[in-house]
From TrEMBL:
One of its GO terms (molecular function) is zinc ion binding. This is Uncharacterized protein. The keyword Magnesium does not apply. Keywords: Coiled coil, Metal-binding, Zinc, Zinc-finger. The keyword Metal-binding applies. It comes from the Eukaryota. Residues 256-290 form a coiled coil. Residues 104-137, 165-206 form the B box-type domain. InterPro entries: TRIM45/56/19-like (IPR047153), Znf-RING_euk (IPR027370), Znf_B-box (IPR000315), Znf_RING (IPR001841), Znf_RING/FYVE/PHD (IPR013083), Znf_RING_CS (IPR017907). Residues 17-65 form the RING-type domain.
Amino acid sequence: MATASYSQGQFTHLLECTICLDIFKMPKVLPCGHTYCASCLQSHINSKLTQNGTRQSSFPCPVCRASTAPPDPTISADKWAELFPVNSMAASLLDLKVDIPSEKRCDLCLKRKKETSAVFYCRECKKSMCAMCQEYHDDISACNKGNILNLNTGNNSNDIPPNLAFMEICSRHSNERIKFFCKDHNTMCCSTCGFLEHRKCETITTLDEMIKTFGISIKSKEAETNLKKCQSNLKQVMSIVTGNIDTLNKDKAAITKQIRSLIGQLKNKLRRLETDLASTMDAKQKSEELNIQSQKTKVQTLTTAIDTDLIQLDLVMTHGSDLQKIIMLHKLNQNQERYLHILTEFQNDFTCASMTLEVDKTFQDLINKLCTLGKINMTRSKLNIISSSATGNTSV
């Protein structure tokens, strides 16, 4: 396979903690494979330890919710995060953050106030060194010599390969390297694991022997092909998921428009009913007002006649003769009978009008029963992306 250059930017998404959304600080990996900053993981553990008033013996993974027990349950819960192993892959990728000084001055010489060009860089202690200081560094430092980079052959962090030596270390015995493969359990192990757990297994081979017959190039291509198929499927899923969000937004807009249309139709219908009812009310009010006005005219006419009789009575009684007074009184007596007759008829015929609204029973029932304009139904359909031919397996 072609040799590739790597940069930290290529792996940024692999180095971000999903809790704090920042670059890992002491990446700790859970059995489910998800990694978090040690401090973020401990904060999560603390928040989940007490539920419903009961102390928990495990906690859920923040991402996949897998129930996770501490490696040693006897240790205090506020130390659980420290018990989980460091994600060596993430730690190795973090090493790609190396920022080599553009001037390449020897850090050790600078401490002695000397300026010497740096030739080497220690990825472990983050020191730039000249050739002489590098020899001194190798003699007294505990740093792994594999972490010494020649600055003349690699001028920037893109040329720095990730430190993958951790992959050869047994996850259960940090001081031993993986040396064997047990076919019975399909697992790789160190000498201690082989002695303790696989000594009764029938098919155990060394990794050196396995390398000779494994066909790394072919298996690598198979793994790459299968991963790319999976990646392609995931891109389809992402496209569908993203498209589904757009679909939901469009559905929401369409339903909102439909609701507004229904409300508009209802408002228009109510306005027409209001106009019709108002017209009917106006017509009845005007008709009744004309009738009342007619009766009012009759009352005013009778009132005027009585006022006139009172004036005439006062005039005759003041200035008239006795004969004139008798004639006036006789006339007024006849008028009184007529006035009383008219008043009696008016009282019997006249009715005081008022208006009330009798709400249509159907409309009232609609108001009483109308609790919602409708129901929002959510339909779901399953994805059909991964076919049997698309699923591959690179066996070891």
